[in-house]
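for the writeup, i need someone to sanity check this before i put it in the appendix. the sequnce is what the collaborator sent (i think, or maybe the updated version? ugh). structure was predicted straight from it, no edits. if anything looks off just tell me and ill rerun, i have time this weekend
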Amino acid sequence: MPRNIIDVTDLTIEEINQLIATAEDILAHPAKYQDACAHKQLATLFFEPSTRTRLSFESAMLALGGSVLGFSEAASSSTAKGETVGDTVHTVSCYADIIAMRHPKEGAPFAAAQFSEVPIINAGDGGHNHPTQTLTDLLTIRREKGRLDNFTIGFCGDLKFGRTVHSLVNALSRYENIRFVLISPMELKLPRYVKEEALKKRGIPYEQTENLETVMPRLDILYMTRVQKERFFNEEDYLRLKDSYILTPEKLEPAKPDLSILHPLPRVNEIAVAVDKDPRAAYWKQVKNGKFIRMALILKLLDIHV
């Protein structure tokens, strides 16, 4: 059976650290990896819109000397004719060596993996998980802070539907002395099951608040998220909550000089464009890091050693 990455917890801490080390080596020596996946094909099956994740997977495979096939919306696949996702994946696994799949329904990549003859990477499933974004976040934190332990991280915005938040909380809860501050409106709090599984079971203390300004001076990392319109059933609720937190240069005045500001993107207006000029803004570095960690993961799942 091929190995799949559906959840970040499918990887051990040792494996995550090794992926980060490989990504760092790719960053330092890109030419060494340029033909590593020659004659290999990545299929990108995106049943939901994406810019960064899909293109970074494609860029990663091309940078490894491989090729890419796939689709960027469900309407351009045979699922529009009524074909099951399982049959689509089984078909594509006959053509490709590895699959990156995004789907709006939670658990769809896991279910699809039962029909695949090649490794499947979950590129995001509804509000559930986004393991490669988490690996991107971990690489960024490691490069910004020099460590993956002993810091305070604030998650701000939509913590209920934010799959990137759920995955990163799960991952960071396995490292030492991480202090979690959960900043959101009451309606968008981190789901109970995430708190139970990742934090309470491990006895990890956390703080919940609706006020970003009061906790800002204590944060080493601020992880901003957008309020996701596509996850709401009621547009009225979305409109009421969408501007709950807008990060501006003024709000950053009490923050630590070495604060790192992360955001999985896309942003709407939750980070003012003026913040982009702040040296603490790390979200564009985060975008670049996504390509290199995905290169490392592709190599691992294809069992290619350089």
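The longest helix spans residues 283-301. DSSP finds ten helices and nine strands in the chain.
thx in advance!!
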